[in-house]
Amino acid sequence: MEESPAAAAATAPLPAAGGNLFGKYEVGKLLGCGSFGKVYHARNIGTGQSVALKSVSKQKVIKEGQTVQVKREISIMRRLRHPHIVRLSEVLATKTKIYFVMEFAKGGELFAKISKGRFSEDLTRRYFHQLISAVGYCHSRGVFHRDLKPENLLLDENWNLKVSDFGLSAVRDQVRQDGLLHTLCGTPAYVAPEILAKKGYDGAKVDIWSCGVILFVLHAGYLPFNDTNLMVMYRKIYKGEYRFPKWTSPELRRLLSRLLDTNPQTRITLDEILQDPWFRKDYEETKFHMEDFFSELKESGGGDMDRTGEEEDGEEKRLNAFDLISLSPGFDLSGLFNKSDVSEKFVSAETPEGIVDRVEEMARREGLGFTRRGNNCGAKLEGRNGNFALVVDVYRLTDDLVVVEVKEKEVNAGPGGGVWKNKLRPQFRSLVYQPGEGGLR
């Protein structure tokens, strides 16, 4: 099984309890050890708010070849803002360590609660409602968790569920041409049979299987598939061999049978779960309270951003509130590791089409290959000998301003010979919006 991105990463030596980190967080007691290293309770010195603090050794991450996965997890978590998903609020880094500032779930792990005994059917249903709400939200944004289990489900101070630990999560751009994921991952007792078959799998369907195992555990108080011999347990999973407890209602039996269907093609879908009679009882769709979120963002300096979350075909890409957060300094991933890609952002008053046209002129002037991307809101420049690649994306910020992101991509053929720094970067200066503070320096 594949380990979580930093499962083997050495944790950073934090100050003793009562010490502070970066003059911003007072570090408290050790909360536990997760797949991403040790987790500490900490307090924001300025606000007094409790947070969970994770730390990772950069050296270990690089040594284990997990740099891309760590960046991916941060990128995934910063785009997920849902009442039942642990929120990543900040990423801090030193030359040797990375610190993740997370929402603090005061109630601890759901696993600790279920280990004391099974839940009532009504309580089981309540937590399953919250789990499906979070998983459905992730899937709608192209994110597949791939390691759902009670240990990764936390509880807040109101005993509401919070999905955590996206260390093994995947996004749609990892899907191969066959439309499937191929990375072997997950926790043995919760892993779907198609992952064991090693023939590729649908990330959404394996998450649904894991949700079925979790539902069974909450209701029964024990695992549907379990054995001291790992291969025997895998055989049970592959064949779908399990027994319902005698107190399982007929309605719940039907739902569990569909969730734990060993054939991913006929396994129940999220839409079908939402219509299931057992699930529908006392179900209230999770409200996102987005008006409150945008008010909070505006008060914190986010501005009155466009609220559409998806791009429409034929339309320019607009930055929404989530994108603005991802562009904030606290989420700048460029300095976390030794740079292989160079990324710069600046604000411009030019139109997206005008910027792409200017980039095309630059490419022609420098003898570079040019390709338009994303409905004329981006471009890719490439060296004729394959030793240079530059990606330019333009996002609408306001009616008058755009954000331009320029990435110099690492290529196998070697360095680009200073094409960006010495030839193209100076030409981009003319696109920078001068009255603002942003820009190329």
Automatic annotation (TrEMBL):
Q: Give binding positions for ATP.
A: K54
Q: Any keyword ATP-binding?
A: yes
Drop me one GO molecular function for this one. Answer: ATP binding
NAF domain location: 314-338
Domain Protein kinase: residue ranges: 25-279
Please indicate if the UniProt record lists ATP-binding as a keyword: yes
What EC number(s) does its UniProt record assign? 2.7.11.1
Q: Which Gene3D superfamilies match?
A: Kinase associated domain 1, KA1 (3.30.310.80), Transferase(Phosphotransferase) domain 1 (1.10.510.10)
What CDD domains has UniProt attached to this entry?
Answer: CIPK_C
Reaction(s) catalysed by this chain, per the record, are: L-seryl-[protein] + ATP = O-phospho-L-seryl-[protein] + ADP + H(+); L-threonyl-[protein] + ATP = O-phospho-L-threonyl-[protein] + ADP + H(+)
Sequence similarity: Belongs to the protein kinase superfamily. CAMK Ser/Thr protein kinase family. SNF1 subfamily.
Q: What's the protein called, per UniProt?
A: non-specific serine/threonine protein kinase
This chain's source organism reads Turnera subulata
Which gene specifies this protein's sequence? CIPK14
